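Lab notes, practical 5.
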Amino acid sequence: MKGIILAGGSGTRLYPMTIALSKQLMPVYDKPMIYYPLATLMRAGIREVLIITTPRDSGLFQKLLGDGSQLGCRFEYAVQSHPRGIADAFNIGRLFIGEDNVALILGDNIFYGSSLHQQLSERLNPDGGVIFAYHVNNPRRYGVVNLDATGQVDSIEEKPENPRSNYAIPGIYFYDNEVLDIVKGIQPSHRGELEITDVNKAYLKMGKLHVSVLDRGTAWLDTGTVSSLMQASQFVEVIENRQGQKIGAIEEAAFEMGYIGEAQLRQLAEPLRSSGYGEYLLSLIQHT
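Output from the prediction step:
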């Protein structure tokens, strides 16, 4: 399975902070925001990732992340000239995806949980589409999935006035290669965008949409507003300071997944020692 991170958009809800800088490059506590979804894909076993950005920001992402070889991965880059919807990522990434399955994660979504990566890695070869369900207090703000008595998807609604369930659909989706044909057949919504909900409904109509419920020990944070960005930073700070372990460290993910060895981790850590981040990475070697 290949991965796509959608890190485009204008970030108007974070103005004036994002007038000159992509929100996915802004810090969430001690790391750039994009580190978190990238680490999620890497820990799920996905090493080939396409990062979709705005034309303005592409060079900055490439300077930050490079081609991925330093992490034992392969990163490619593409641009979305203007917002055309989440599902447009599959059109942009068509050549990158090729004949493989694909995972799409939004660049401003942060996931954390002890069982999360195993849950994701078990879905790398889906027969159809896989969405994830997360119990929320206010489902009206999200796409909502309703499950029948057997735990199968019964319906999907986008920001419903009267939700049928409290299960929101977070910003991570797994699909087989058929998604490329499905995207060809969907039409732009009234917003002029290709909606990911329409992709999921197409799989549902075919009887090939599956759901995986994220357990209560998993945290899902959306950093699209000033308030939620601050809350995410505070969450990461509390967990890291309490546990002494970092969330979303891509170098640590690469090391623990066996993509790189001790020598490469040491090489990545040395330039970062003055911030304390490098010292943390070096401590991983000492504890192996």
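Observations recorded by the TA: The mean pLDDT is 93. The chain has one domain: 2-242.
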